[in-house]
């Protein structure tokens, strides 16, 4: 009986080590991806602000001198602005998904510990019943 208790405790410790290792590894990856996503989001925001400023300046130029060449570039800038806005929305969506994955990982770690405890209790109870 002492051996089964030791085996059970050893299994629990091994399961805890594996769970903590996996959690630590995935948590580190999530933090790295989250950091990169935030950097990309800041960069997109800066780009979007710059394009807005450029659009305002081009609008002012169009009002002052409606040259066909300026109109052509204003259309291109407007097109780029729309694409940046779309990418910005996509990055926000990815960021929300990463946050959800991080939250689910935290919850699953708690569940894994609970399941491990239940398995160990069942194993211990079955050993006691057999003895």
UniProtKB/TrEMBL annotation:
Keywords assigned: Coiled coil
Cellular component GO terms, alphabetical: BLOC-1 complex; BORC complex
Record GO terms (molecular function): SNARE binding
InterPro entries assigned to the protein according to its UniProt record, in alphabetical order: Snapin, Snapin/Pallidin/Snn1
Keyword match Nucleus: no
GO terms, biological process: endosome to lysosome transport; intracellular protein transport; lysosome localization; lysosome organization
Membership in a protein family: Belongs to the SNAPIN family.
This protein's name: Biogenesis of lysosome-related organelles complex 1 subunit 7
């Amino acid at each position: 009986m002492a051996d089964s208790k030791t085996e059970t405790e050893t299994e629990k410790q091994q399961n805890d080590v594996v769970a903590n290792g996996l959690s630590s590894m995935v948590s580190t990856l999530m933090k790295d991806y989250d950091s990169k996503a935030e950097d990309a989001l800041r960069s997109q925001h800066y780009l979007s602000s710059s394009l807005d400023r450029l659009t305002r300046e081009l609008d002012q130029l169009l009002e002052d001198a409606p040259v066909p060449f300026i109109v052509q570039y204003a259309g291109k800038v407007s097109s780029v602005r729309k694409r940046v806005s779309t990418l910005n929305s996509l990055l926000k969506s990815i960021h929300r998904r990463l946050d959800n994955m991080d939250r689910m990982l935290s919850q699953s770690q708690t569940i894994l510990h609970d399941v491990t405890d239940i398995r160990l209790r069942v194993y211990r109870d079955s050993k006691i019943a057999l003895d």
